[in-house]
Amino acid sequence: MKSESCQTDTDRRDGVPVHLPILSEKPLPVGALGVSAGPLIDGLARRIRYVRISLTDRCNYRCTYCMPDEGIELAPRADVLSFEELEATVRALQTVGVERVRLTGGEPTVRKDLIELVTRLGRLGLQDLALSTNGERLAELALPLRRAGLHRLNVSVDTLKPDRFAQVTRRGNLANVLAGLDAARAAGFAYTKLNCVAMRGFNDDELGALCRYAWDRDMIPRFIELMPMAEGQLFYPGTFLSVAEQRKILTAELGPLLSDAPDAESALPGVGPARYALVRYAGSLRKVGLISAVSEPFCDTCNRVRLSATGQLHACLAYDDAIDLRRVLRSGLVGDALLDRLVQAARGGLSDKRASHVFSESGCGGPRKHMVSIGG
Ligand code: SAM
Ligand code: SF4
User: Fold this and answer.
1) Residues 6+ apart with CB under 8 A from 334
2) Of the chain's two ends, which shows fewer C-beta atoms within 10 Å, N or C?
3) What per-residue confidence (pLDDT) applies to 24?
4) Could you give the CA distance from residue 158 to residue 205 in angstroms, rounded to a whole number?
5) DSSP string of 243-281, one letter each residue
6) How confident is the model at residue 260 (pLDDT cuts 50, 70, 90)?
7) Ramachandran region, residue 113 (left: φ > 0; alpha: ψ -120 to 50; beta: rest)
8) Strand pairing of 128-133 and 275-281?
9) Domain boundaries, the chain
């Protein structure tokens, strides 16, 4: 639960009231930069190569740390970007070197006609097109997604115990997710990542079992620190389990964690937020990823931006300010002029990208938005 001792945002962030949207879209004339005018770089010289796109703020689960049981106030459907608008945004970002796209949510598999969207994006020749899902509908969707051109999957599985799974997801059925993982393998997905939010007193006794489950199926387990989104409303400090503690548990259960490994998903190191370690298992070295967003932030190597379902481009997960790309998308511009203006808007906003977030282990420092509305 939110800590009583959190300072106000104004105190914490140099007097800037962070929950007021910052108007970052700089009024540059179309063509001033040009769609081919070099890579997307933020004000601190970090190069942006990766965008996570939320397709919906709806979800068929209500994970306790992500979404309140009663749900959240949903965006009006008319504000949600159409497939044409999503494709235009990706094409614009591609012109400035963004070659990696992850589709997320809410739960992306509840978006109508998802396969059609993946087919459209699959034709753009992206280096990487991935999807994060809770896996509930994966058994039926894995093969169509693969055929549509999806490259990779991240599937969230916090526990292998059905009762715990039902408890943490409030709506989920573990058997459906495990069937979905089998279907993903059968469909030919490789390097599937099994994402698990590690929580003290909930699944800290399952970290080894989750690794073994993943490795036995050629998947990559990753453990995520609980983040205090929604101003810490869904954050229980007592359940926070730092990566340092996760490492100790993993070492005790599986043996020594060997030095950091390059990201398994590509030759490009550091594409995702995880740091990987190697563990000797069943005669070979296996990878385990640790995502230390809170206790060991990785902001200095941040290479990503996030697009909400309503077209708000967030430079950082941890702040509410965003660049309104929907306004650009619906401005009447078409073709290269539209792409050009989208790039300008993104560049303008990124010059304000923060140096780092201020998440704390006590539940302070989070944005007002819920994780379900931005996608993790
Ligand atoms: N619904 C999909 C899923 O669950 O994978 C995609 C969206 S979900 C918001 C993306 C990831 O964010 C999931 O792996 C989820 O466990 C993680 N997540 C949600 N709330 C979180 C929180 N407060 N702290 C850390 N991770 C969180
Ligand atoms: Fe839904 Fe994913 Fe959030 Fe769970 S973590 S409530 S599945 S969006």
Assistant:
1) none
2) N
3) 34
4) 11
5) HHHHHHHHHHHH-PPEEEE--TT-SSTT-SS-EEEEEEE
6) low
7) left
8) unpaired
9) 4-374
Q: What's the 341 CA to ligand 2 centre distance in angstroms?
A: 33
Tokens describing residue 64: 């306790």
Q: Is the dihedral of CA 71, 76, 79, 83 positive or negative?
A: positive
Per DSSP, helices labelled H in the chain are: 9-12, 83-94, 114-122, 138-148, 162-169, 174-186, 207-216, 243-254, 325-329, 335-350
Is any atom of ligand 2 closer than 6 Å to the C-beta of 72? Answer: no
Q: Which residue is closest in CA terms to ligand 1's atom 26?
A: 226
To test the ligand 2 pocket, which listed residue (371, 373, 374) has its Cβ within 8 A of the most ligand atoms? Answer: 371
CATH superfamily of this structure's domain 4-374: Aldolase class I (3.20.20.70)
Q: What global pTM score does this model have?
A: 0.89
pLDDT (tens digit per residue) in 49-69: 999 999 999 999 999 999 999
Q: Is 293 in the pocket of ligand 2 (CB under 6 A)?
A: no
Does the C-beta of 61 come closer than 6 Å to ligand 2?
A: yes
Query: Tokens in use for 123?
Result: 């034709």
Output the CA 156–ligand 2 centroid distance in Å: 8
